[in-house]
């Protein structure tokens, strides 16, 4: 069994270490000082949640041509990078290779086997050049939702903060051999990775909060707890979430909890900075297209207006451009 983690930053390195510990042959695609450290000294994974640590020496490279053909590829790149580098995965493919898109926001394959009038429509906000659709192809794809939080403490050192949920699912909701096989591997490696019948609903449940809290945090500098407790910020969040809910429901998604409970759950996370705010503070590209614009684009497809989402997206995009934290997907 060969599994490649494509884009092994914090989350990818964490998943890779868990798989290595479980005896899986793992290859990491990464770059820079993190790559050099893994190649020279190996990878150290520490978990604050389980109070454990594990050292391993996975295969690590920045060139997919150096690796064997893979059974599974788990893409853990930021959404904008995944959209622009999909063609580089092809040396890893054999006929049966499956690709798991562990990326925030609506996935590029969202309308594949959607079983509705929007079948095979494409989301330009997450796949502007159709590289993922054309090179990976939706037939290879499994969906997932990433809940673990981790960070790179130093090159070659990943620190798992919390979370072990990693649900996966087929676009058509079937319990295929490949999705069941991967689920068993991930579960035996320490992740809660059940096969979900409607992975799109799981994706929306996470995105429902992210589409609002992430851009608002970048605009205000507030933590999740501060946004939820700030009446002005939370009022905007609620308007954005209601628009997102309307889009999701038009696509056949039913949320199992109320908006208030979803916000309360986010409030309970505490003084946590969203990944979007962290990226802004560190001068890194921000995933605002995947987290916010994709919802607006889906709204246009189903004729649901998203005026508040659109307004906030434009504001945070402008801030990202000024800070050098926005990658134009069309260049």
Number of distinct beta strands? 11
Query: Which regions contain 5 or more consecutive residues with pLDDT less than 50?
Result: none
Q: What's the CATH first level of the largest domain?
A: Alpha Beta
CATH topology of the largest domain: Rossmann fold
Rounded to an integer in angstroms, the radius of gyration calculated over CA atoms is 19 Å
Structural class: alpha/beta
Shape: globular
**Strand coverage percent:** 5-15%
For the record, the CATH architecture of the largest domain stands as: 3-Layer(aba) Sandwich
Total domain count: 2
Major pleated sheet: 7 strands, mixed
Helix content: 40-55%
Strand order of the largest sheet: 5-2-1-6-7-8-11
> Helix segment count?
12
Going by CATH, the homologous superfamily of the largest domain would be NAD(P)-binding Rossmann-like Domain
Provide the succession of SSEs: EHEHEEEEHEHEEEEHHHHHHHH
* C-alpha end-to-end distance: 37 Å
User: What average pLDDT do the residues reach?
Assistant: 96
Description:
The chain has 331 residues and is of the alpha/beta class. It has 12 helices and 11 strands. The protein folds into 2 domains: 2-198, 3-Layer(aba) Sandwich (Rossmann fold), CATH 3.40.50; 200-322, N-(1-d-carboxylethyl)-l-norvaline Dehydrogenase, domain 2 (Orthogonal Bundle), CATH 1.10.1040.10. The protein has helices at residues 10-21, 32-41, 79-85, 131-136, 177-188, 199-220, 224-229, 231-250, 259-267, 275-282, 288-301, 307-322, and strands at residues 2-6, 25-29, 43-47, 52-56, 59-61, 72-75, 98-101, 141-144, 149-154, 157-162, 168-169. The strands form 2 sheets. A 7-stranded mixed sheet has the order 5-2-1-6-7-8-11. Strands 4-3-10-9 form a 4-stranded mixed sheet. Strand 7, helix 4 and strand 8 (141-144) form a beta-alpha-beta unit.
């Amino acid at each position: 069994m060969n599994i490649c983690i494509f884009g092994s930053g914090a989350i990818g390195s964490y998943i890779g270490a868990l798989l290595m510990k479980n005896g899986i042959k793992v290859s990491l695609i990464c770059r820079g000082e993190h790559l050099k450290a893994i190649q020279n000294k190996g990878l150290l994974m520490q978990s604050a949640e389980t109070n454990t640590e594990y050292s391993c020496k996975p295969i690590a490279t920045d060139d997919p041509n150096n690796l064997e053909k893979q059974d599974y590829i788990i893409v853990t790149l930021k959404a904008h990078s995944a959209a622009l580098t999909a063609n580089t995965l092809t040396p890893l493919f054999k006929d049966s290779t499956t690709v798991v898109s562990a990326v925030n926001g609506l996935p590029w394959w969202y309308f594949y086997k959607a079983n509705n009038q929007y079948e095979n429509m494409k989301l330009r906000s997450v796949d502007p050049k159709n590289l993922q659709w054309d090179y990976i192809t939706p037939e290879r794809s499994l969906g997932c939702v990433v809940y673990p939080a981790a960070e790179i403490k130093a090159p070659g050192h990943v620190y798992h903060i919390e979370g072990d949920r990693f649900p996966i699912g087929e676009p058509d909701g079937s319990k295929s051999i490949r999705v069941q096989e991967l689920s068993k591997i991930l579960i035996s490696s320490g992740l809660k990775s059940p096969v979900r019948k409607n992975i799109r609903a799981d994706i929306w449940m996470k995105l429902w909060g992210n589409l609002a809290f992430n851009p608002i945090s970048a605009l205000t500098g507030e933590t999740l707890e501060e946004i939820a407790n700030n009446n002005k910020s939370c009022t905007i969040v609620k308007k954005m979430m209601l628009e997102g809910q309307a889009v999701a429901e038009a696509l056949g998604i039913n949320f199992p909890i109320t908006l208030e409970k979803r916000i309360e759950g986010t409030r309970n996370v505490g003084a946590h900075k969203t990944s979007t705010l962290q990226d802004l503070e560190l001068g890194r590209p921000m995933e605002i297209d995947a987290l916010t614009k994709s919802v607006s684009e889906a709204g246009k497809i189903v004729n649901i207006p998203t005026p508040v989402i659109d307004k906030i997206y434009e504001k945070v995009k402008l801030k990202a451009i000024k800070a050098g934290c926005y990658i134009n997907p069309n260049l």
